[in-house]
Amino acid sequence: MPPAYRLALALGLLAALANIFGGLVLTGRAWERRYLRYFVALGAGFMLGTALLEMLPESWKLDPARAPFLLLGGYLLVHLVEHSFIPHFHFGEETHAGAFSHGHLPLSVMAGLGIHTLFDGVAIGSGFLVSSWLGWIIFLAVFMHKIPEGFTMASVMLAAGRGHRAALLATVAIGVASLLGVALMLLFPLGLPQALPVAAGVTLYVATTDLVPEVNREPGIRMAAGVFLGVAILVGLRLVFQGL
Ligand SMILES: [Zn+2]
Ligand SMILES: [Zn+2]
User: How far, in Å, CA of 167 to CA of 161, rounded?
Assistant: First the structure.
């Protein structure tokens, strides 16, 4: 196995563990929950920058004719699985217990979020197929929202009355989906010209439609500033490692 593949899988595993850690924050009080919102704000900015400045240009290079359509498709795919089939879903702690009184809803959320996390993994795998720079940057973008993502998954299970064990198992499931996404890309690298723009659309959706609304719910400038800081960190890394 080439070293880049091994690295991609190791980082995919780390991202999956962050999902589980996010669940532990909720069920085991492993960490200060209030730090989560800064991860959401930073992650929103960093992911937005990664999608627009890194993943888009590379996608365009691979297939300029189809990339715009695949990007839009990736965006709409997450809209479909997270917000069309599921009547109630948002990032952050689920406190609307009444929204989950109908039996199978938490499993639908798990399935919807699982498709999104599958593409988190596809994004990391695709990145490493292009360059180690792109792989690392996408990994960081994914990693920043993985803890809030696991937290969200676990809180949906708890709000549905499923208990701590089921909540943790659900975070394991969405984590495994991410790892599977990385492995799929490494097994089928010829799919890169299609997978990268779709993953870019997914990343754009998660940044703008899942994370930014959570940032905007908080009053004051601190959270809003976190988004700019996230973009600034990405641009700073580009300056240092790529010379812009
Ligand atoms: Zn809710
Ligand atoms: Zn994700």
Answer: 10
Provide the greatest CA pair distance for the chain: 53
Given a cut of 90, whether residue 95 has pLDDT beyond it is no
CB under 5 Å of ion ligand 1: residues: 94, 96
Structure tokens at 138: 């996408």
132 has pLDDT over 90: yes
pTM for the model = 0.94
- Expressed in angstroms and rounded, the spacing between residue 150 Cα and the centre of ligand 2 is 9
Q: What is the DSSP string of 102-113?
A: STTHHHHHHHHH
Q: How far is the CA of 196 from the centre of ligand 1 (A)?
A: 31
Residues 149, 163: contact at Cβ < 8 Å?
Answer: no
Mean pLDDT of 214-230: 90
Ligand 1 centroid to Cα of residue 124, in Å, is 29
In angstroms, rounded to a whole number, what is the distance separating the alpha carbons of residues 80 and 142? 20
Q: Given a cut of 70, is residue 102 above it in pLDDT?
A: no
The CA-atom distances, in angstroms, between 237 and each of 4, 57, 138, 208 are 20, 17, 12, 21
CA distance 71 to 65: 11
Model pLDDT for residues 16-54, shown as the tens digit of each residue: 999 999 999 888 765 677 778 888 999 999 999 999 999
Task: Specify whether the backbone of 96 is left (phi greater than 0), alpha (psi in -120 to 50) or beta.
Answer: beta
Q: Calculate how far, in angstroms, residue 118's C-alpha sits from the geometric centre of ligand 2.
A: 8
